[in-house]
Write a structure and sequence with these properties.
This protein is mainly α and 75 residues long. It has helices at residues 3-24, 27-55, 59-62, 67-74. It has one domain (3-74). It contains four helices and no strands. The chain crosses the membrane at residues 7-24.
Length: 75
């Protein structure tokens, strides 16, 4: 569960970078945004694999795993 807090932080960072890119409108920000996006995808994928190893879930169950799914399920 703690792993997903990092996912939320990375999402917030990406959104902030997105807003800055729109405000400045420079080409270099598009490159920075792309790098940030790929880094986020890599981190999320890594966290998911760690979670699956720890709980021994199958890939079918992994399709339902996500921050929002967990928030709903824990309520």
């Amino acid at each position: 569960m703690v792993d997903y807090i990092y996912t939320y932080i990375y999402m917030c960072v990406c959104v902030c970078v997105c807003l800055v890119a729109f405000l400045i409108g420079a080409a270099k920000w598009i490159a920075i945004l792309t790098v940030t996006g790929s880094f986020m995808a890599y981190v999320y994928d890594t966290q998911l694999k760690v979670y699956l190893k720890r709980t021994r879930k199958s890939t079918f169950q992994a399709n339902n795993i996500g921050p929002f799914y967990y928030k709903l399920k824990s309520q």
